[in-house]
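Sequence in, structure out. Go.
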Amino acid sequence: MTTGGEIEAILHPFPGRARVFLEGPPGAGKTTLAVRRMSNLVQGYVPAESILVLVPQRALGAPYREAMWELDMPRGEVTMVTVGGLARRMIELFWPLVAEEAGFAHPAREPLFLTLETTQYYMDRVASPYIDAGYFDGLSIRRSRLISQIIDNLNKAAVIGFPHTEVALRLKRAWTGESAQLQVYDHAQACANAFRTYCLANNLLDFSLQIELFFERVLAQPVCRHHLLDRYRHLIVDNVEEDTPRAHDLIREWLETCDTALIVMDHDGGYRAFLGADATGAAALRSGCQDTVVLNESHVMSPAVASWGSYMLRSMGSEVRQQMSELPALSEADARSALYFQSHRFQPQMYDWVADQVARLIEQEDVPPDQIVLLAPFLGDALRFSLSDALARRNVPVRSHRPSRALRDEPAARCLLTLARLSHPSWRLQPAVPDVAHALMIAIEELDLVRARLLTEITYRTREGRSELTSFDRIKSYVQQRITYRLGERFEHLRQWLAAYVEGPPVDLDEWIGRLFEEVLSRPGFGFHQDLDAARVTSNLIESIRKFRRIVEPTLEQEAEPAGRLSLEYVRMVEQGIIAATYAQNWEIEPAGAVLMAPAYTFLMANRPVDVQFWLDVSSGAWWERLYQPLTHPYVLSKYWPEGKAWTDEDEFSARQMALARLVLGLVRRCRKRIYLGIAQLGEQGQEQQGPLLQIVQRTLRRMRKAAQ
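Output:
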């Protein structure tokens, strides 16, 4: 039990207990206490500009930003930042001191900080000659995924702290399969090395180079180090288990010099291990604090949900139980009241059952829609479309969030960029008939694919490298009746808007998208009207284009490219499968009254509790499997993997078991009232499913039946 003195040490630091390590399960109130500590420091006349709040990803800082807005801080503002954001600020400030020593070709010029999307753009430019020469020919993997994995290797080397030139060596030493894979690692290393050389030659700083420059050059300068450590005397670090080894090294040094510190850690975390998260290193920071406070009581889980989690944990094997912290309750009757499940033969039956249960919860039990989440290991297009359609037929609003997803795979983005092609004939990028039909189906409300295809085949014309849509009025009357005059009127409004733009002065692509969304697509009768996902994608696309212009425009100017080339380059980049950046506002702006559909890990990393969770397709093996990543390895490229040790099948099995356990218990700890399990005996391809998560559920139910006897 937590004592009043321990809580007082958290809220009001005092000599002897100024540096506190606060830990416990998610939902124990740790962040709430940390926010109150920040507020008390400011209200206690500590200069706000001397307080630093450090989080592993920007979205996790939302509670602190909300508290900042509520506080009156006339003497400055609290700094809320990630280690990556801190690195960028310090590099911008001390660039003249470190640029030449770091090997940049133009140290007198300002650096260009790359986003995730522009990093992929430049990596693709650098890697293209290698790919064209036959590198990676034996791999069955999208070009965009190949590019992103090379970038991932650079990032892991940076956040862990080993030279990026050693990535291939580490991967090869751990490889036990066919020898042909060793050459793949060498080819990936060659691309990574060439990219780093290109960045140094052009003053480009991707995330990996920012981290390396910060830790190896900026902090190596005494004046820079003292500026940082002396400026921020009061440190609050939240979700430290999701941060990286190098971040922990900096925090450890800070603890020796700061006036006060609060380090907050979730038990059984480390979900961002694939990004370098180091839960073991986070726990080691206890030794740098004067006091450790443990909060065990959850303010999220009901006793029923906690009991279900307890039974689940006992069904996962002794090795897992030894490494995971216990849940607080164990009652067979409680566990049964928290769990609802139903097995179905086919997936569409499962989707209908899920949609029925969601509608019932909202209509009969008054559960707010934004307190319901639908979770799957991967949120594929088929699952998303089927569930969205099933919920729409029951008048349930839904939104989805899918990070690490190519922009071209977002229907709204594909629609916008196809229409952009039609409005920019100078690009000479004629969209295919299926793409135009799909764009019209998305853009015009109630237009189904059959009529969209018919409308496209009649009105879409291409001649001499130019494409256009002809008038609906020129279609034969019996075909107009088949399409309907109401839909034809909407089509004509869209067509005239596009045609008017072609005749007028061109504008930047982001401005064009904003105008099309505001003047046409968001209006009643069009596809983006009241579509939360489409609005989000449009906003992200506009922001992506603006950042792309700011970074890439200097490169195109140096290459004497003509006006308009930048928009064309962006469209081509998207077509190659560029992975969208994760924008913080996707999580920070919670649409009222919408059910959330997301991958399970994405939901966990948002750290947001809800009343009801639906686990979809529990019988699928995808809950247990790792993504196919032939160019990288999250466990081998880690701080703790022994140098030269081979990665065996036993290691793979153990890693998957622990990852599944962390995932399941993380979800349980973020659920207040009830968990629904959707089970389909046959997968999307019609194969029988009996995945590890379903086996754990079955063992858990047997254990509960035995306890009831």
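Check: The mean pLDDT is 89. The first strand starts at residue 19 and ends at 24.
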